[in-house]
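Service request form, structural biology core

Requester: graduate student, group of Dr. S.
Request type: structure prediction, single chain
Budget code: on file
Notes: please return the result as structure tokens.

Sequence provided:
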Amino acid sequence: MINVILHGAAGRMGKEVAAKIEADTILSLAARVDKTGADGCLRNLSDFTGDADVIVDFSHHSATGELTAYAVSRGIPLLIATTGQTEEEKETIAKASEKVAVFHSANMSLGVALLCELAKKAAAGMPDADIEIVETHHNRKLDVPSGTALMIAEAMRKVREKARFVIGRAGGKREKEEIGIASIRRGNIVGIHEVLISTDNETLTLKHEAHSRALFADGAVVAAKFLAGKGAGLYTMNDLVKENEA
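Core staff response, request fulfilled:
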């Protein structure tokens, strides 16, 4: 069995992930941790000293320092499934990955990981095309643009090295090297990401739509199994997809 410490276990996504782990035949919940102490959770990671094979985090990016310090001190692989990390927090993640395996993704969906790969190939195959990303989420989402939209844009910038991101276009002529990112917030939408790649004569549209937040729990379960036993390094959904293709 792969023993999991679930951090942020009392939150909406934490509860989804806990249910998936409890129903899984390979994963087992070693501990549930949440700063609220709700639902019988431990309040602090340091409260748990038992055996574990991987830490799964669905809390908040502000916990990055505590998570990485605990993972490094105990030599336990860490899966971070939160977004909105500051540059300092991203550096903390990078440093931790030099000592333990760290899996970090702005989106835990396998479908989104495949969308990133398709978008990158399309951007390379249509080098003169305009690129726009439109992301739509529920009206309570805090980060704008979404971490997923930025993840898609970064994937395409790997084949368009001069590209710059224009977030929330407001007037002015479109420049050749731009990748536009527009954000829409309405209702209770889980997440929709569209990539529009257009020349004067045609448009290629790539779209991913999340029907339920449970899909992120599905991705976390797959990623936890992937991460357990991995050596030090920084891993992403792209690494998981490539391993599945092998």
